[in-house]
Amino acid sequence: MSIPALLLGSILVVISIFMVIKARKKMTALKEYEFENRSPEGVVEFASIDLSRTHAADKGLYTVLGIVGFFVGIFGVALLVAGFTLCVNVSETPIP
User: Fold this and answer.
1) Closest by alpha carbon to 51, among 39, 67, 37, 65?
2) Per-residue model confidence as pLDDT tens digits over 67-96
3) What pTM value is reported for the model?
């Protein structure tokens, strides 16, 4: 049980790091666009309504991706801890 938990935990941690980094980069690009296209009144201007909808959808998507990535990472770390705990407990068990 410990080896699959260690393997799955490490895979989930790597996936979560990728998800969080991807979400962070995309959100930074979206915030840069908002900063560069903000009117003096504080409204973000778009060339068309379709670009506005796409921007809002991307903002929501990458927010959710970052949050899910965080929780996948927490689950991966929990599996790593469980796997290491099982490895230590199994190695300390005397063989009759």
Assistant:
1) 37
2) 999 999 999 999 999 888 877 766 555 656
3) 0.81
The Cα 71–Cα 22 span in angstroms is 15
Task: Please identify which residue in the block is written with the tokens 């009117």.
Answer: 39
Residue 4's contacts (CB-CB under 8 Å, 6 or more residues apart) are 83
- pLDDT for residue 96: 61
CA gap 29, 38 in Å, rounded? 14
In three-state form (DSSP H/G/I as H, E/B as E, the rest C), the secondary structure along 31-69 is: HHHHHHCECCCCCECCCCHHHHHHHHHHHHHHHHHHHHH
Q: Both tokens of residue 73?
A: 């990472």
What residue segments make up the domains of the chain, in order of their start? Answer: 2-92
